[in-house]
Amino acid sequence: MTWLHSNKLSRLALGIMVALAAASGLSAAPKAQENTAKTADDSKAKSSQNAPVLEEITVTAQRREQRLQDVGIAITAMTGDQLQSLGYTNAQQIMAMAPGVSTIQPNGEANYAVAIRGAANNDFITNQESPVALYVDDVYISQMSAAGFLLFDMDRVEILRGPQGTLFGRNATGGLIQYVTRKPTQDYNGYGNVSFGRFNRLNFQGAVGVPLNDKVSARFSMATKQGGGYVKNLLRPQLNLNNANNYAGRAQVLFQPKDAVDFLVKARFSKQEIRTGFFKYVSAIFPNSTPTPGVPNSNLNNYVDPNPRDPYTGSYDFPGHNTNKTTGVTATLNWRLSGATLTNVTDFSSVRRDYMEDSDAPRSITSTSS
User: Fold this and answer.
1) What is the DSSP letter of 118?
2) Which of 82, 166, 256, 345 could be bridged to 78 by S-S, CB 3.0 to 4.6 A?
3) pTM of the full predicted structure?
């Protein structure tokens, strides 16, 4: 009897302990869920704070300032900071980031045109106008030889696909590209960027902005690109082709006599002087013009083409050159009225180009034995 009684008491105590444990577990479960929910909320808040924020880009694709998300046009826009992060130093390079947009270079780096959705001009004549218009601060670039300018101190670039003739004139049937430079402000600011790479390529660009008084501010920008050529000249190694010898500058002064009126005067210059105009050729047997790359040519004293498969080598006894000088002055007046803005853009531009190319074989190849 005594054992049975103690066994019952033990069972009773065990039941009480299980009940208490279950009760404590039930009471702890909401607390655990609450703590877990709180931890999840804290993690979500921290992740939302650390998440990348989409940078808002303001464009003028419809001749007025709008958010990029609010423009009903197929458009690619990049800010100046993005261009600098990508290392872009030439106006042609932005095509790499725009779908459906490519560069056409009929005769090397001397000229280039832009193709948007297949609409392009592939003529090598400098004075031909392209169906894709180029603008720099609302100034139309009419000649292909002025299109390959250095890219520096930019605010943004806008690439508009499709006909834009209503707002930008007849020369924008395929689309257009608008380059917008940074303007003077009432703050002291500036930057500088230097890079060095293969073929002794040295790139530098920089700018400084200063307020002259409470109504006048100025900004000065410059860039240069120097270095050796990457096309090896087997006849004259000291004159490798496609070298870099470019420099450009820009000076802007902004007058703001009233809150509703601003007047911007900009002067600019650029120069390119490089060895270019090369062609990759192979010898051929007369009269069938059968190419003989890498084998002796009986018509040319058993001449053998050097490095026939390497497009970055050639024999040039007379290296071509491209000298391109651009100058210009632009005056822009903005007068903000009630409900509208009156804008007047006046520009004078000058482009001078001297181009020569070595499109035939050197004398050592064309000479034959008697």
Assistant:
1) T
2) 82
3) 0.77
